[in-house]
Design a protein that fits this description.
Distance between the termini: 33 Å
Number of helices: 1
Number of strands: 12
Radius of gyration: 16 Å
């Protein structure tokens, strides 16, 4: 569980959370089962990323839930720090209504995003990310991206982003659990 709460950190009134893998992964199937909280000004994200601090250009593949509207989730890629292939997709019941399954299928010539087993977005036009990346989960807010995320409104309680499962399956490898999108992909 990643939290966002009124817990002072340095000169800030709130603290947020991010976790990442140490290992980098390339083409394959990235899956997570999670549930977000709700509230304006927050971003709950499951994504892959590599960047200058790792000696690489900024490449990224995203699922980002802007929790002011939990009925949709944003998908996107970044190549050399520039956004490409973005879109917003509906999530039946909302990202906060219960646990949902999210999957990114990253192949050399395309990227596909799935929600609860259904294909919701596809990117086939260059440029596509090309560098192995770490897997991240983050739950954060800001005072500077109000137009995109909404103004933060303190709910007076701890907010959470719950992750039930995460996995990576290399292309062509056996699926790891019965609910995996990898079990039925061609």
């Amino acid at each position: 569980v990643l939290g966002f709460e009124r817990k002072p950190y340095k000169d800030r009134a709130f603290s947020c959370a991010e976790i990442q893998t140490k290992e980098r992964f390339g083409h394959g199937i990235y899956e997570a089962r999670f549930r977000t909280d709700t509230g304006s000004g927050l971003n709950a994200a499951f994504f892959t990323y590599i960047g200058p601090q790792n000696g690489q250009p900024h490449d990224e593949i995203d699922f980002e839930a802007l929790t002011r509207n939990t009925s949709r989730i944003e998908v996107n890629t970044y190549v050399d720090g520039k956004p490409h292939n973005g879109g917003k997709v509906d999530v039946a019941g909302g990202t906060d209504g219960g646990f949902n399954d999210y999957a990114i299928v990253w192949e050399p010539e395309r990227i596909r995003w799935y929600v609860n087993g259904a294909l919701v977005h596809e990117a086939t036009e260059a440029p596509l990310p090309g560098h192995p990346q770490k897997i991240f989960f983050s739950f954060w807010g800001t005072e500077t991206l109000n137009e995109w995320m909404g103004a933060f409104d303190d709910p007076g309680r701890r907010l959470s982003f719950e992750v039930e499962r995460v996995s990576f399956t290399g292309l062509g490898e056996e699926c790891q659990f019965p609910e995996s999108i990898a079990c039925g992909l061609e």
